[in-house]
Every structure is written in C-alpha cells, then in structure tokens.
Design brief:
By secondary structure, the protein is mainly alpha-helical. It has one domain. The chain contains five helices and no strands. The protein has helices at residues 9-14, 16-24, 29-43, 52-56, 61-76. The chain is flat.
C-alpha cells in the first residue's frame, strides 16, 4: 500500500512530469511558482489547506485574494489561455 506524499512548491516546480505538463499547456513556470507561493503565504504559518467551505464561498476575503492571484498568474502566462488542474 502506498502512502500519499504531497510535494513542496520547490519539488513541484522541479518535477520533470509537472514541467512537461506546464510546457504542453503553455504555463509560465515562474508565474505558476509565484501564484503557488502567494497562496501559501496567505494560508499562514499553519500551512492548512483551505476548507471546502472556502472553496465554495466566492465572496470570502480569501476567495477574493485567490482570485486576484489567479488573475495575475493568467496575465503573466505566455499564452492567452491557462489551464491548471489539480
């Protein structure tokens, strides 16, 4: 049985498979890293993932911050379309 190990931001940015997917989707790696670090900083020192309520509540303060981060990520991308899926 395998155990799930979440990647750190540095590991995710350097992962060869993730880099290939970002390249195929024309995602700017620097902009993606900046977006991840911005969201991580907004989560604070606890590093806790956003609750499902947060993800469903577009009016929350954190939702507006995340929206602003995603918007700047899209603007910094190398193409007009950016597709990121988790």
């Amino acid at each position: 049985m395998s155990q799930r190990k979440d990647l750190t931001i540095d590991e995710a940015i350097r992962d060869p498979m993730i880099r290939l997917v970002m390249k195929a989707d024309r995602v700017n790696p620097r902009a993606f890293e900046a977006m991840l670090r911005t969201v991580a900083d907004e989560q604070g020192l606890s590093g806790a993932a956003p609750s499902s309520y947060f993800l469903q509540d577009p009016g929350s303060v954190r939702g507006r911050r995340l929206s602003r981060s995603v918007r700047s990520f899209k603007e910094a991308g190398s193409s007009k379309e950016v597709c990121v899926s988790w």
